[in-house]
Amino acid sequence: MKPNRQPNILFIMSDDHASHAMSCYGSQINQTPNIDRIADEGMRFDNCFCTNSICSPSRAAILTGKYNHLNGVKSIEDHLDGRQMTFPKLLQVNGYQTAMIGKWHLGHGGDADPTGFDYWNVLPGQGLYHNPTFIDQEGEKPYSGYVTDIITELSIDWLSRRDSNRPFMLMCHHKAPHRPWQPSAKYAQWYEDVEIPEPETFHDTYENRSQAAVEANMRIDRDMRESDVKGRPPEELSALEQKRWKYQRYIKDYLRCVASIDESVGRLLDYLEEEGIADNTIVIYTSDQGFFLGDHGWFDKRFMYEESLRMPFIVRYPRVIEAGSVTEAMALNIDFPVTFLDYAGVPIPAEMQGRSLRSIFEGSTPEGWRTSMYYRYWMHLDEHHNVYSHYGIRTERYKLIYYYAQALGTTGSADENREPEWELFDLQLDPYEMNNVYKDPAYSETVVKLKEELHRLQAEVLDQPVAEID
Fold first, then answer.
1. CA-closest candidate to residue 121, choices 133, 109, 136, 131
2. Which of 161, 190, 330, 369 is deepest in the core (most CB within 10 A)?
3. What Rg do the C-alpha atoms of the chain give, in angstroms?
4. Residue 416's pLDDT is what?
């Protein structure tokens, strides 16, 4: 049965915004006062994870509520087949006004354009930071200005034209702070005279870890382009000094892009207050996955390591959520659509694999709530980042990862000298995941139990394992 007042839903998602660059999550490198308003007036999830840390697959999971092997978007090269069921379609046929504005990144043309939206206006592919082109139902149109500001203005414009007698669901998707981190003129000088602290694992040497970590092409010192750091480091600098120079150039532009998003969030929250609809609007702020901010000496994501796996997820809904709430309950991106449908009073399709977070929003974690989650990254040895395909599980204390490489059966390929590898991290004793204890005899029983749980979860989500080699 539908509630008397279906809530509005404002879903704000950035691209590559790590939770440790948000002050409500304790950031040591920046402040995000407007984003913090959502957490201060609502709930912060400290254990929200993506099921595949790469943008298109995460976006597809959020729309469909399904893992990528079922929704068909395993990599950034895959397009979403819009003929399948999505939560915007279900909201649309149940009285909601729906809109999608900003980064889509799930293909265009054929069955790939956004479906289930009364209005959509999206960036082609990654889109541009400055003077971008957008695509809507009528075709391509150039815009002047900075992309974050344009997305915000388009969002507010659509909200101002809505039917105030019907609920709405708006997906406001920012391009920022995605590579190549080009800030607006307004924030271009921020942090100019500030030395941004380096993360604890900045000088990671990848000892006692998988070969996958060694071979990944995501190192700040070695793999960043001139376009990433907007120039070349002075030649007189040592190798270590050059690495630090590149980090400062990278992280400052990243944080400048975040500053524009924070301003955007403030404008949207102010609009809801001015319209008198804040109390009946669920506001979500999240990102499509985490990101390495110099952690392990890296940029980018993809790995199942914490900085990449963890998503920021904060929600404000004054009617039911106690201000300043924090939860340790484990949430996944496939839970988002199920939660929205639950609050809208719309029946949840059996094909959706997530669980509603409604009880958690309202202060009660259901009995039997998940204490483990399954992850799979499919883009084996992509040409730019060279990250191995892998799958694994994370429990409340442990993380088990399997890099299956040669087990794919690629004899004669570049993988023939890459042996499958396992990693096990005790997150309680090793929160930065620096010490692989998979072969430590003290963890032998833990390995057996974790593999059993891995197989259980894999079967539960209808995924197929590859040959596992110890």
1. 136
2. 330
3. 22
4. 60
